[in-house]
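Sample pair:
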Amino acid sequence: AAGLGTRMRSRLPKVLHPLCGRPMLAYVLDAAREATGERPLVVYSPPTALLREVVGDAADWALQDVPLGTGDAVRAALEVLPDDVGEVLVLSGDVPRLQSELLVELLEQRRLDQAAFALTAVAAYDPTGLGRVLRNEAGGVERIVEEKDATDEQREIGEINAGLYAFDADWLRERIRTLTPSPATGELYLTELVGMARADGRLVASLDVEDDGRLLGINDRAQLAQAEWDLRTEINESWM
């Protein structure tokens, strides 16, 4: 939850924007807590320090001094995570409509395959702008390629990476240190770990889900308004 969310055009950190009266981050923390039975660990940055004031004791905290990508955010989390933690669930603070049942399935998929990690793959209606999941002939995950780096053929793939992961913590601690900065942005990306796992002879499992909109991240006010509408509809239907 360390990103600035500049497309929201607001001084308020993105993940504190409200949905049905609660910060969007609160829904992610609820899902994490329900799925794991553990206290969530939130990664924040100096410009998003207001998160600590709002969320308070509902989470533990890790400071990412300079937001340098998803890989660097997880590195910051691992620095304060107890050594005896054997499994790590990585979520994004701007995906408030995810459900704990899906996270439980993701954890179980990794354990079933004894994989280095499991990711969530979505058969997207519109994959434009998102990272594509590349598979081998046996259907295993071999690589994730960002759209800007993809060939025309790869852009035809409709399966995208939703950015939710369950990791073998020991493997993650070793490999997070070997991530290399992106030549384009200088950031460290978790998606590079797919190739590293395969190089280590480890599986990368996938939980394959249909595109129902629940795993879409919120990046601007239009998407925030749509998420509020969808969430309100769900709440009304549950009561009726």
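Helices lie at 24-36, 50-55, 70-80, 100-113, 152-155, 169-175, 192-199, 221-239.
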